[in-house]
Design a protein that fits this description.
Chain B: Residues 10-19 have a biased composition (Basic and acidic residues). Chain B: It comes from Methylobacterium oxalidis. Chain B: Pfam families: Oxidored_molyb. The complex is a heterodimer. Chain A is α/β, with parallel strands linked by helices. Chain A has 2 domains: 10-103, Translation factors (Elongation Factor Tu (Ef-tu), domain 3), CATH 2.40.30.10; 111-237, 3-Layer(aba) Sandwich (Rossmann fold). Chain A has helices at 82-89, 127-139, 160-169, 190-200, 212-224; strands at 10-19, 24-30, 42-48, 54-60, 70-76, 96-103, 117-122, 145-151, 173-179, 205-211, 232-237. The relative contact order of chain A is 0.15. The longest helix of chain A is centred in the middle third of the chain and has 13 residues, at 127-139. The two termini of chain A are 30 Å apart. Chain B is mainly beta. Chain B is 11% helix and 32% strand. Chain B has helices spanning 13-18, 61-65, 94-101, 124-127; strands at residues 24-25, 46-51, 54-60, 70-77, 82-93, 109-114, 119-123, 133-138, 141-142, 152-154, 167-173. The two termini of chain B are 18 Å apart. The interface between A and B is large, with 50 and 43 residues.
């Protein structure tokens, strides 16, 4: 697929803000591409100070493409975060924020790509995977999918209630958790990967997103378990 | 348009002068790649120079390591907004690779190719004159696999997606052919100082 049209900045109004976890807030932005992006893509956000100084960051889209006229971003407040700090404590509904997208053509999945679909997320790395799961439900509910989600605690899980409801209500979707700081918690290891592959079958697509060390470890485990490299797509944040 | 309530946290003046527009300084070395880190065996590693489909010369790891070495130190800039200062690389310049092959660049454009089937296009003028190398060492040690080792292209004056990881060849092309990201909306040239992130920038 080629996408050679210019990516223009647009002023996107914040239509809604909701808490997600203690450190993550959900923002609905009005944009002109809410129906035409692919799950897994991200946007660039640009903030401008009165003297013209600017800061830019990239955020994955959490929502699936739809007719709402909005996209959802989930922004985690990082310590000392120049842009995430603004979204944590300054941004309000009605603010207009410069934004452009959709960006990225590798870490994407649409219903036409079929399955089985293996998603492995660490922390807020689950956000683009959530977009894929929401899209699957709307556009390709027959595709089998499994999310292996690592978070520190239950309360730090992004979209926990939604994910648990999907796992309960959607045939063909399985949720596996690795809560590293709960009693008896564990990291994603080879046994968990094997269990996930056993439950799902050989994936046609595997998407791994999270911090740098998380993605390195998880994608190495997938290779060790025999998943072909060409099937695995990765996205990393932090640094 | 100023963003209501945003003041920003400006880096010190000395840092700001070295940061292209829209970039921030990081002390880490973030990793960005399409998929898992490929597992590359030095015993079978090859670097191949091609004119279109035609191979011009190919080097084993041992032969490549015997080529003249050049060091480069400076700042690198990733399109995902981070910049890293004072990185130190060692490798073989494209000039020296061409000299060892005994050829002049046959065209004005090239595609760098990686073990992960990644490609990215760079004008030959940006590869010559000591402006680019195939690097095999970073900060005095072999380049770690996550950062593109055993060998990666280094074109530090362009956004870092042009510095293809796990590089295994350079293919000269008659015209400027878009590579992996360039086909997906990223800029054909990618000058960070002109903020050429995406098509149309």
């Amino acid at each position: 697929m080629t996408e050679r049209a210019a990516l223009r900045w647009q002023e996107a109004e914040i239509a809604a803000i909701e808490p997600v976890t203690g450190r993550v807030r959900s923002f609905r932005f009005r944009v002109d591409f809410a129906e035409r992006f692919r799950p897994g893509q991200h946007v660039d956000v640009r903030l401008t100070a009165p003297d013209g100084y600017q800061a830019q960051r990239s955020y994955s889209i959490a929502s699936a493409p739809d007719a709402s006229g909005t996209i959802e971003l989930m922004i985690e407040h990082l310590d000392e975060g120049e842009v995430s700090g603004f979204f944590a404590s300054v941004a309000e509904v009605g603010d207009r924020i410069e934004l452009r997208g959709p960006i990225g053509g590798s870490f994407v999945w649409t219903g036409r790509d079929a399955g089985p679909l293996l998603l492995v997320g660490g922390g807020s790395g689950v956000v683009p995977l959530l977009a894929m799961l929401r899209h699957r439900d709307a556009a390709a509910p027959d595709v089998r999918a499994l999310l292996l989600y690592s978070a520190r605690t239950r309360s730090e899980m992004i979209a926990r209630e939604e994910l648990e409801a999907r796992a309960r209500d959607e045939p063909g979707f399985t949720l596996m958790l690795a809560l590293t700081r709960e009693p008896g918690g564990r990291r994603i290891d080879r046994a968990r990967i094997d269990a996930a592959l056993g439950a799902l079958g050989a994936p046609a697509h595997a998407f791994v997103c999270g911090s740098n060390p998380f993605v390195s470890a998880a994608s190495d485990l997938l290779l060790d378990a025999g998943v072909p490299p060409g099937v695995i797509r990765t996205e990393r944040f932090g640094g | 348009m100023a963003t209501r309530g945003f003041t920003g946290r400006r880096p010190p003046e000395a840092t700001r002068e070295r940061l292209p527009p829209g970039q921030y300084l990081t002390e880490d070395f973030p990793v960005l790649q399409l998929g898992p880190t490929p597992r590359i065996d030095l015993a079978t590693w090859r670097f191949t120079l091609r004119d279109g489909a035609k191979p011009l010369k190919s080097w084993s790891w041992e032969a490549f390591e015997a080529l003249p070495r050049t060091t480069w130190q400076g700042d690198i800039h990733c399109v995902t907004k981070w910049s890293k200062f004072d990185t130190a690389w060692e490798g073989v310049t494209v000039d020296d690779i061409l000299a060892d092959a005994g050829v002049a660049a046959p065209t004005e454009f090239a595609l760098a190719e990686g073990y992960d089937d990644y490609t990215t296009n760079v004008p030959v003028a940006d590869l010559r004159g000591g402006r680019a190398m195939v690097a095999t060492r970073y900060a005095g040690a072999p380049i770690p696999p996550d950062h593109g080792g055993p060998a990666r292209l280094l074109v530090p004056h362009l956004y870092f997606w042009k510095s293809a990881k796990w590089v295994n060849g350079l293919r000269f092309t008659k015209k400027d052919e878009a590579g992996f990201w360039e086909l997906r909306g990223y800029h054909m040239y990618g000058d960070p100082w002109r903020e050429q992130r995406f098509t149309g920038d």
